[in-house]
């Protein structure tokens, strides 16, 4: 709505509403006259507006757009719009079980050059993949923020930042996402940071068929802050945090250095924290805790350089105040002493035993979140008051 004030024009944000029982022929401007679809709400809304999503299950979708590879069920092409639950006590569920898999599925695509889109308090489930290589709950090519958004029980990646995609995930969960073929099994991550820099804060990934967090081919530096990865055991690569690497992709002129801090990785079938053949320093790893990751808690494998893809034990990684327990503590690390101070395996006089910790029950990592999406209060890997590891790890 535009209001004339003297000779100037002032823009006022508008509110729109959608409901599973709504109708796209409605006005959509009041609680009692909601639209049925996000697609219709986006058509009506402008930058600065809010679309309130009423509770219930949404599953009556049409394909908004397609290209040679994808069907985009929701194609977000306008900037500056917020999509949020009308009530955090009754967050909407978007169920994509009826969508065709004639192409890859992107349940939501945030298109290139779209900025400042926000999704707050919602659930996405049953995104199918069929025989395709992969599908995605959220494909972010532009810029978006996700807060208290959960992707679960999909055959698709949860959050997939790609190309020049940027943004942040705050208090989001991505779990039980498992591909249905050998190919999609190995392409279904909880969180994919393959764009131009993403921040993950207080997020959790568990039991996804590939990795919990994957930042292969990233153009920009990603930050993983107070995030958890548990039980990646469903058949893919199965790392908790795969940070870095380019595979056969193009390495950027400046190789980004990521930040991994106050994170927790437990009971994953591969590595807890993995530098993944980075042609340079993959990350600064600070105050992280790794427990019982089958192929190593910290794996610092690098490559020589942007132009020499020979694998080497990492020489440039920086690790301080980290804890590793049970299994291989750290491997493929040829680091100068100054780069690995005050870790549980490097600090003089420190020993690490089960008795340092209040609990070794990693399943606590999947407990329900608290008020406003706070991480659950757990005792797993919390230090006892008499532990000589004080100041180390993610619960110090």
Give the topology.
Blueprint: E1 2-5, E2 8-11, E3 15-18, H1 38-44, E4 50-53, E5 57-58, E6 65-66, E7 70-76, E8 82-85, E9 93-95, E10 104-110, E11 117-125, E12 136-140, E13 143-152, E14 157-161, E15 166-170, E16 173-175, H2 182-185, E17 191-193, E18 198-201, E19 204-206, E20 213-214, E21 223-225, E22 228-230, E23 241-242, E24 258-261, E25 264-266, E26 273-274, E27 283-286, E28 289-291, E29 298-299, E30 301-303, E31 311-313, E32 318-320, E33 323-325, E34 330-331
Explain what the structure shows.
3% of the residues lie in helices and 33% in strands. The strands form four sheets. It has a 19-stranded parallel β-sheet that branches. The protein has an eleven-stranded mixed β-sheet with strand order 6-7-10-12-14-17-20-23-26-29-34. The longest helix has 7 residues. With 396 residues, the chain is mostly beta strands. The N and C termini lie far apart (51 Å). The chain contains two helices and 34 strands. The N terminus is likely disordered. α1 links the parallel β3 and β4. It has one domain: Pectate Lyase C-like (3 Solenoid), CATH 2.160.20. It is found in: Secreted. It holds the Pfam family Pel9A-like_beta_helix. Belongs to the polysaccharide lyase 9 family. This is Pectate lyase. Keywords: Calcium, Lyase, Metal-binding, Secreted, Signal.
């Amino acid at each position: 709505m535009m209001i004339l004030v003297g000779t100037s024009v002032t823009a006022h944000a508008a509110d729109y509403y959608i409901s599973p029982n709504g109708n796209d022929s409605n006005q959509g401007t009041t609680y009692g006259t909601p639209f049925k679809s996000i697609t219709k709400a986006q058509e009506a809304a402008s930058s600065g507006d809010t679309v309130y999503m009423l509770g219930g299950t949404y599953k009556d979708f049409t394909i908004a757009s397609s290209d040679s590879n994808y069907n985009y069920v929701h194609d977000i092409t306008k900037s500056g719009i917020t999509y949020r639950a009308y009530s955090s006590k009754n967050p909407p569920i978007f169920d994509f079980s009826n969508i065709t898999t004639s192409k890859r599925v992107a349940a939501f695509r945030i298109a290139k050059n779209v900025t400042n889109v926000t999704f707050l308090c919602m659930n996405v489930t049953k995104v199918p993949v069929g025989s395709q290589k992969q599908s995605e709950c959220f494909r972010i090519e532009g810029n978006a923020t996700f807060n208290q958004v959960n992707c679960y029980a999909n055959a698709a990646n949860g959050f997939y930042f790609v190309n020049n995609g940027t943004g942040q995930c705050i208090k989001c969960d991505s779990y039980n996402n498992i591909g249905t073929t050998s190919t999609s099994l190995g392409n279904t991550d909880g969180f994919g940071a393959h764009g131009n820099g993403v921040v993950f804060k207080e997020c959790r990934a568990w039991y996804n068929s590939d990795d919990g967090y994957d930042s292969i081919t990233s153009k920009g530096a990603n930050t993983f802050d107070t995030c958890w990865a548990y039980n990646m055991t469903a058949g893919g690569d199965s790392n908790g945090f795969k940070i870095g690497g380019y595979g056969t992709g193009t390495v950027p002129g400046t190789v980004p250095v990521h930040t991994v801090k106050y994170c927790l990785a437990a009971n994953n079938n591969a590595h807890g924290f993995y530098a993944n053949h980075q042609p340079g320093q993959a990350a600064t790893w600070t105050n992280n805790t790794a427990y019982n990751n089958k192929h190593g808690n910290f794996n610092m494998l690098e490559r020589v350089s942007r132009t020499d893809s020979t694998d080497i034990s990492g020489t440039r990684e920086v690790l301080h105040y980290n804890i590793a327990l049970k299994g291989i503590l750290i491997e493929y690390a040829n680091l100068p002493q100054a780069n690995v101070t005050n870790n549980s395996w490097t600090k003089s006089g420190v020993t690490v035993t089960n008795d340092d910790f209040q609990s070794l029950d990693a399943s606590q990592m999947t407990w329900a979140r608290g008020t406003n999406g706070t991480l659950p209060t757990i005792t797993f890997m919390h230090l006892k008051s008499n532990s000589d590891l004080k100041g180390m790890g993610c619960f110090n």
